[in-house]
TrEMBL record, chain A:
It is a peripheral membrane protein. SUPFAM superfamilies: SNARE-like (SSF64356). This is AP complex mu/sigma subunit domain-containing protein. It is found in: Cytoplasmic vesicle membrane; Golgi apparatus. It holds the Pfam family Clat_adaptor_s. It comes from Dissostichus mawsoni (Antarctic cod).
TrEMBL record, chain B:
Its main location: membrane. InterPro entries: AP3_complex_dsu, AP3D_dom_metazoa, ARM-like, ARM-type_fold, Clathrin/coatomer_adapt-like_N, Mu_AP3. The chain crosses the membrane at residues 1160-1181. Residues 795-812, 956-965 have a biased composition (Acidic residues). GO terms for biological process: anterograde synaptic vesicle transport; Golgi to vacuole transport; neurotransmitter receptor transport, postsynaptic endosome to lysosome; protein targeting to vacuole; synaptic vesicle budding from endosome; synaptic vesicle membrane organization. Pfam families: Adaptin_N, AP3D1, Mu_AP3. It is found in: Endomembrane system. Keywords: Membrane, Protein transport, Repeat, Transmembrane, Transmembrane helix, Transport. GO terms for cellular component: AP-3 adaptor complex; axon cytoplasm; endosome membrane; presynaptic endosome; terminal bouton. This is AP-3 complex subunit delta domain-containing protein. Residues 686-825 form the AP-3 complex subunit delta domain.
Length: 204, 1216
């Protein structure tokens, strides 16, 4: 087939993947289109490659065949239960990307206040929004954490103002849903006042 | 709503109903809720059911049955509903939680969730939809296909609220791609968002667009993005340059980023920016920018050696201050030395204070940097061999691979043995399949190379290697396939009966013997067999082993190699002592064993035996069978063999078997019944009339067809407004453009020629250098013996004779950067290489020039009537018709009314009745046109001789030009001809008249005229074209891909002709293509009939796909808007043209003659949005001439198409 477009034009970062120690995807961002099955396969293969590596070895990996081939590298970092993997081409500086991952994680930490895997699990949309401030179409846009956070905050504010009062009940409900109900006391006793907590439906 | 609290999240009224609503909330779907409502006796339609709580509130206040409240209630409901029902939807968090709680039956749970989401997407409420889309985005990450919701995603994207818009765009960026059909619906929405006053809307739209942009979107939105970044991204080179000095570091770094990306493939265009970058490098503190700049310099320094010297100081400073420098070393030995030393420290010392992984990273980067340096300065790296060898022991596979790569590049004659020995040691302890595999491959590679230069040394390693294999089944498994091929290459490296075989012999023997142990052990693994294949090649000995009965269990191709080599060996034995016991034994064995393989070699051996019995000396002749070097064949060799002329590999050697005989017969039978219809006398006359009629019908069709772009007088109005754009004269593209060539400056041409020669010589030299293997070197300080290994490979691979010298196939067609790799020099050179004929001014045949630029005029086709009997008359008539066509076009544009009228007159005189209609329509269009348009927008200088011609063309002539009267040109070109029939195609410039069909961009129509040349009746004509991947002949439904198309008429004898049209479907029109076809027909005489066949070739050129499209000056200006086209400058003669391809690509051409000698415009290519397909190409093609330059500025949104169109233009120029 003849090339009808420049569809495979260059992107510097081909994909950004976050998955946990068991290979469960927590975020996947492909800057080039693959179908869902291929995406899953890429994630699996990447996990396979990355997870068998020691903690003390370097953070660069060549030879993943699914994305890009020889010109591409995996640059990854392992934080607690999560792997952050960037698949980049040779135009990208290895240390630069490592630094970018660090900025990304620090930004997440600021935005979620002590980020943990659960935050990424439940708020993958927010993670995407933060990432969008840093990388666009495979190119690094911004590496200054303060600038990123400022923009993310500004957008969150806008979202809140749009929801207005109408958004309040939804937020409240979601706050309730997010409460860890089983840990709530059945009875609350303050002095001689005893409040019986009604049986709440499980939202889990 | 304030009633919501932790203990009681629901409004009191909800409890008042006493309904057990809450327990249902977590249930999927709305079925239960609806039930609840029905039990209350409230009729709520499905869409409102979600507002159940609201309904309850209202119900409490009114008595049931009061209808007048109902509509009010509904109104209120809708308002309240929006916020409340969201509480009960499962949001993303609920979905995630649900999935986590259903670990065992996740798929089932998700499928119910998807059903729910489908319901939610049916709602009117955008909030509900957005929530559903948000969940879909999550599911997409888990691998579920959500493309079915594409339309809903578009809906959410177009929400006015940022919250939802963002959700929509995120979903789109995750799952939209080029073949998503709704993507075109987003164009306007994205445009709106891009121009939104809210910067975040714009940001979100851009982020999304960057992920799912398609060529179409890019074309449509390019302007919007340009206006979005008037400051930083305007696709004008000077502007970009300015931005490098922007005070805002963000803008600065963006500009650096863009230029670096642009410069990756063709850095020399950016050399002029070096001083600027230099300044930036010394002043910038931003690491990102620094890294990018250093990388850029890495690409620039080879082009400009002085730059290297200048860079030393700042770079040294950097190296000293920073602990690392990331690659792209400028070309200077002093700084290189320093770098390598720094790198050594990096690799060697691990900082105790750092994490081990950080040290590992440094080590890796150090090695990576070294391998970059190695390519240019091998000597500096060589001295650190010890260190690199150490790294082979590293526990990190990435580092080991890097070190291996480095060692591989360091191999030279001197250290070959040492390195290979070291590597061999590592093979045993190598861990990890990838690494081991790589290690083996590298060793074999080195040895293969070595065989060609230093053969004796190479036997050692290959000896050892072979031992690696039979050592046991285990190590072989898994990674044999790749090495085995290399091994066989290595084997073939010592061909035939030459010396190294002796060394290999024992190994091969043992291997082949071992093969039987392997085989007997029931291990017939593919991999092992492959090894045997290789080994058999290497040793080609030990017939015994090779001819064992067990061998028959091996795969066929290995058996073949076995037999082949057995024969080879037999020949050697024969030579060593004919008639000796050895050879007779061998012979007997051959005869005994060979029947097993059913090979012709058996006959050979038997024959030898016979001859030997007659005491004929045969050994020499037998050995001659295997004489000649067997070199490894280059992988591209086959591709490079030019296909000999006249050979069509796709053509059938024998006629393809027809599907069934009866089918073949049937249509013929039907056809003969119809025969009377086509009686001769009626035929011609009816045709003429009918064609006229048809033409009229078509015109009406076209008029009513909204897609048909025609010259409508009404649209001309746009033309006059916009005072700022008059300087852009817009001329219809099919107007003839006489380009004048003044003779070239002799010296200049000679110089060019000399340059070219020099280059060729150089090339040859390089090749020869490569041929000798080691002479060629780039490093300034490298010695012969430490030539980087990369060079040697060229030698070993065999190329076929007369292989095409093209290097095209070196370029990976899938290379993502291909688009950036535009060789401007080549383009210009081509133009120069074929200089115009000197010593005289050749008038350009205006037809030609125009034809290249013009598109086939779709409405003209109707006028092409049956060819008349006298060829002369025909041609003049057609020429006249063509003129008229042009005129009509012109009149549409209302360029030269006066001239036009004059033309009309002439036409009236010449033209027959058929012209009447056309003329009338022209006149009406003129009347409708505003008179102001008469002012010529294009400067005109009517010339005297052949003035009519030039005037017609609506372009400028140079005064000094003398024009010859044009030779009468036929509009038809011959397609193919034999003694029976002639096939002709319209068009004067040998380009087939191909008519694009704008309604369906993939269809083109080819009109072919068939003319009977003999005195027989021609019937049953079948037109067939072999389809290519890209183009297909449209056949009626139900016919196979190879069936021919029946031509719907017959040709009675006597120069009778008729026209048939064939529709082709094209996948891509950006490349020219040739199709081969055949015409079969029956020649019927009174007494006999014969089958005849005629072959032809259809050539589809790119320019034929271009369609003249009226384009108004403001739109044109917009298209050209790039700040670089010098439309505004004083140009005494120019013409701009606009055309569209049938698939909607825009092509703009600005043809200029520059009368004063001035500096040629710098050749520039500006690529905008480099990583995607908006490809604005501003190419100034200047022909170097003494007085006058013809330059063509071209713009197109499809680079391939543009390239091909320009090629065709150039070709036309060179023909002139």
């Amino acid at each position: 087939m003849l090339p009808t477009s420049l569809s495979s034009a260059s992107t510097m970062i081909k994909a950004i993947l976050i998955f946990n120690n068991h290979g469960k995807p927590r975020l996947s961002k492909f800057y080039e289109h693959y179908n869902e099955d291929t995406e899953q396969q890429i994630i699996r293969e990447t996990f396979h490659l990355v997870s068998k590596r020691d903690e003390n070895v370097c953070n660069f990996l060549e030879g993943g065949m699914l994305i890009g081939g020889s010109d591409y590298k995996l640059i990854y970092r392992h934080y607690a239960t999560l792997y952050f993997v960037f698949c980049v081409d040779s135009s990208e500086s290895e240390l630069g990307i490592l630094d970018l991952i660090q900025v990304f994680v620090e930004t997440l930490d600021k935005c979620f206040e002590n980020v943990c895997e659960l935050d990424l699990i439940f708020h993958v949309d927010k993670v995407h929004n933060i990432l969008a401030e840093m990388v666009m179409g495979g190119m690094v846009l911004e590496t200054n954490m303060n600038e990123i956070i400022m923009q993310v905050d500004a957008q969150n504010k806008m979202e809140k103002s749009e929801a207005g009062i109408a958004g309040a009940p939804a937020r409240a409900v979601s706050a309730v849903k997010n409460m860890n109900l089983p840990e709530m006391p059945r009875n609350i006793n303050i002095g001689d006042i005893s409040i019986k907590v009604p049986n709440l439906p499980s939202f889990k | 709503m304030s009633a919501i609290s932790y203990t009681d999240p629901f409004p009191a009224s909800l409890h008042n109903t006493g309904r057990p609503v809450r327990p249902q909330l977590h249930l999927p779907g709305l079925g239960k809720q609806q039930q609840t409502l029905h039990t209350l006796g409230t009729r709520v339609d499905e869409r409102q059911s979600r507002g159940s709580v609201g309904t309850h509130l209202l119900l409490c206040r009114r008595p049931a049955g009061h209808k007048r409240y109902k509509s009010q209630a509904n109104m209120a409901l809708k308002i309240v509903k929006g916020s409340i029902d969201r509480m009960f939807d499962k949001n993303l968090q609920d979905l995630v939680r649900g999935i986590r709680n259903h670990k065992e039956e996740e798929a089932k749970y998700i499928s119910t969730c998807i059903d729910e989401i489908k319901q939610e997407l049916k709602q009117d409420n955008i909030a509900v939809k957005a929530n559903a889309v948000c969940k879909l985005t999550y599911l997409q990450m888990l691998g579920y296909d959500v493309s079915w919701a594409a339309f809903n995603i578009v809906e959410v994207m177009s929400s006015s609220k940022f919250t939802y818009k963002r959700i929509g765009y995120l979903a789109a960026s995750q799952c939209f791609h080029e073949s998503t059909d709704v993507i075109m619906l987003t164009t306007n929405q994205i445009r709106k968002d891009l121009s939104s006053p809210n910067q975040y809307d714009t940001g979100v739209a851009l982020t999304g667009l960057s992920c799912f942009v398609t060529p179409d979107l890019a074309r449509d939105l390019a302007n919007d993005i340009m206006t979005l970044y008037p400051e930083s991204l305007r696709p004008a080179f000077p502007r970009l340059k300015e931005k490098l000095e922007d005070p805002d570091p963000g803008v600065q770094s963006a500009a650096v980023n863009v230029i670096c990306e642009l410069a990756r493939r063709n850095p020399k265009n950016y050399l002029s920016l070096a001083p600027l970058f230099f300044k930036l490098m010394t002043s910038s503190t931003n690491n990102w920018v620094l890294i990018k700049i250093i990388k850029l310099f890495g690409a620039l320094t080879p082009l400009e050696p002085r730059l290297g010297k200048k860079l030393i100081e700042p770079l040294t400073n950097l190296i000293h201050s920073v602990d690392f420098v990331v690659l792209g070393m400028p070309n200077h030995s002093a700084s290189i030395q320093l770098c390598v030393q720094k790198l050594r420290i990096l690799i060697e010392d691990s900082d105790q204070n750092c994490e081990p992984s950080v040290n590992a990273c440094m080590k890796y980067l150090g090695l990576l940097a070294m391998s970059k340096i190695l390519k240019t300065h091998p000597k500096s790296v060589q001295s650190h061999k010890d260190l690199i060898l150490q790294c082979l022991d590293d526990k990190d596979e990435s580092i080991r691979l890097r070190a291996l790569d480095l060692l591989y590049g360091m191999v030279s004659k001197k250290n070959l043995m040492e390195i290979v020995k070291k590597l061999m040691l590592h093979v045993d302890k190598a861990e990890g399949t990838t690494y081991r595999d790589e290690l083996l491959t590298k060793i074999i590679d080195i040895c293969t190379r070595a065989t060609t230069s230093t053969s004796p040394t190479s036997n050692g390693p290959s000896h050892n290697l072979v031992h690696q294999y039979p050592g046991g089944a285990d190590p072989v498994r898994g990674h044999t396939a790749r090495p085995s091929h290399r091994l066989s290459d290595a084997g073939r490296g010592h061909p035939g009966q030459s010396h190294p075989r002796i060394c290999c012999r024992p190994d091969g023997h043992s291997l082949l013997d071992n093969a039987h142990t392997l085989l007997t052990g029931n291990v017939q693994r593919k991999g092992i067999c492959e090894v045997l294949y290789a080994a058999a090649w290497i040793c080609g000995n030990s017939q015994k082993a090779m001819l064992r009965p067990k061998v028959a269990t091996l795969p066929g191709h290995i058996q073949a190699v076995y037999v082949q080599n057995a024969a080879k060996l037999f020949a050697t034995v024969l030579k060593s002592g004919e008639g000796s016991a050895d050879s007779t034994a061998a012979q007997e064995m051959m005869i005994e064993r060979l029947p097993l393989f059913a090979s012709c070699i058996l006959q050979l051996v038997k024959y030898i035996q016979k001859l030997q019995q007659k005491d004929v000396e045969i050994a020499e002749e037998v050995i001659a069978l295997f004489a000649g070097e067997l070199n490894p064949v280059a992988p591209k060799a086959q591709k490079k063999v030019p296909v000999p002329e006249g050979l069509d590999l796709d053509a059938w050697i024998n006629e393809p078997p027809s599907e069934s005989e009866s089918e073949d017969e049937q249509p013929r039978a039907i056809f003969s019944k119809e025969e009377p219809k086509y009686s001769r006398p009626r035929h011609t006359e009816v045709d003429e009339k009918e064609l006229a009629k048809r033409r009229e019908v078509r015109k009406q069709e076209q008029a009513s067809n909204p897609f048909y772009i025609k010259s409508s007088p009404s649209s001309q109005k746009v033309y006059q407004e916009g005072p700022g754009v008059e300087h852009i004269p817009v001329v219809q593209i099919d107007l003839t453009v006489p380009l004048k060539y003044v003779k070239l400056e002799e010296e200049r041409r000679q110089k060019d020629r000399a340059d070219k020669k020099k280059k060729e010589k150089k090339k040859r030299k390089e090749k020869r250098g490569g041929g000798r293997g080691k002479k060629h070197d780039s490093g300034p300080e490298s010695e012969e013996d430490i030539t980087p290994a990369h060079m040697v490979d060229i030698v070993t691979e065999e190329m076929p004779e007369n292989a095409l010298p093209s290097d095209d196939d070196d370029k990976d067609p899938n290379d993502p950067h291909k688009a950036l790799d535009i060789d401007l020099d080549n383009l210009v050179q081509k133009a120069v290489i074929r200089p115009l004929a000197d010593s005289e001014k050749l008038p350009v045949r205006s037809h030609r020039a125009a034809d290249v630029l013009k598109s086939p005029t779709e409405d003209v086709e109707a006028e092409r009537t049956v060819v008349s009997q006298e060829p002369k008359k025909k041609s003049s008539k057609e020429k006249k018709e063509k003129k008229k066509d042009k005129d009509r076009k012109k009149s549409k544009e209302e360029k030269k009314k006066k001239k036009h009228k004059h033309e009309d007159k002439g036409e009236d005189l010449l033209g027959g009745q058929e012209d009447e209609l056309v003329v009338q329509s022209e006149e009406t269009s003129e009347v409708a046109a505003p008179p102001t348009s008469t002012t010529a927008e294009c400067p005109l200088t009517p010339s005297d001789a052949g003035g009519e011609e030039s005037v017609q063309n609506g372009t400028v002539e140079e005064e000094e030009e003398e024009e010859e009267p044009l030779p009468p040109m036929s509009n038809y070109c011959l397609l193919a001809e034999n003694s029976y029939i002639k096939m002709m195609l319209e068009d004067a410039d040998q380009v087939n008249d191909i008519q694009g069909n704008l309604q369906d961009g993939s269809q083109v129509v080819v009109s072919v005229i068939f003319e009977n040349k003999c005195e027989s009746f021609l019937k049953s004509m079948e037109f067939n074209v072999l389809d290519s991947l890209n183009s297909k002949l449209q056949r009626p439904e139900g016919s196979g891909a190879h069936d021919g198309l029946t031509v719907p008429f017959q040709l009675p004898p006597g120069q009778v002709s008729n026209e048939a049209r064939f529709v082709f479907t094209m996948q891509s029109i950006v490349m020219p293509q040739k199709l081969k076809g055949t015409l079969t027909f029956i020649v019927k005489n009174e007494d006999s009939s014969t089958h005849e066949k005629l072959e032809f070739k259809l050539h589809f050129t790119c320019t034929s796909y271009l369609i003249t499209t009226p384009c108004y000056s403001d739109a044109f200006a917009k298209l050209l808007e790039s700040g670089d086209l010098k439309c505004s400058s004083r140009i005494d003669s120019c013409a701009s043209m606009y055309s569209r391809s049938i698939q909607g690509h825009h092509v703009c051409l600005l043809v200029k003659t520059v009368s004063e000698p001035k500096n040629l415009y710098p050749l520039q290519i500006l690529i905008f949005i480099t990583y995607y397909c908006v490809f604005l190409l501003n190419l100034i093609l200047s022909l170097p001439q003494s007085e006058q330059t013809v330059s063509i500025d071209a713009k197109c949104d499809e680079p391939t198409l543009l390239g091909n169109v320009l090629d065709e233009i150039k070709q036309t120029f060179s023909q002139c």
